[in-house]
Amino acid sequence: MSVDPIPVREELQRIAKEQALLRRRSNGGLALAWFSDHALSATGGGLRVPLSGGVLQDRLTVVASATTDADKVAPYVQQAYREAQRSIILRAIELAREDYENGAPEAES
Fold first, then answer.
1. pLDDT (tens digit, 9 = 90+) per residue, 5-24?
2. 35-63 burial by CB neighbour count: b if 16+ within 10 A, else e?
3. pTM of the shown model
């Protein structure tokens, strides 16, 4: 009795693809749970809003901080970073949600 290597290889490729989708979905789900626990406000049933404290660093440092006039740039970078923190968290949640939803195995017909 012999085994046809082509169907076996195709089956292994299908299994690997399914594992990758499940891993992606699992990671997205775990990330959503983490965001729920640590990055969104606890409200009495109202809309939950992103929290930046404890989730993102308080300060963003300029890589070239030792260069001339970097100290003049830093306050602008800090302000822009603080203003962007909410959108960074919202985008991260959106990406996790996409992975969770798109990582679900396709229904077989």
1. 778 889 999 999 999 999 99
2. beeebbeeeeeeeeebbbeebbeeeeeee
3. 0.72
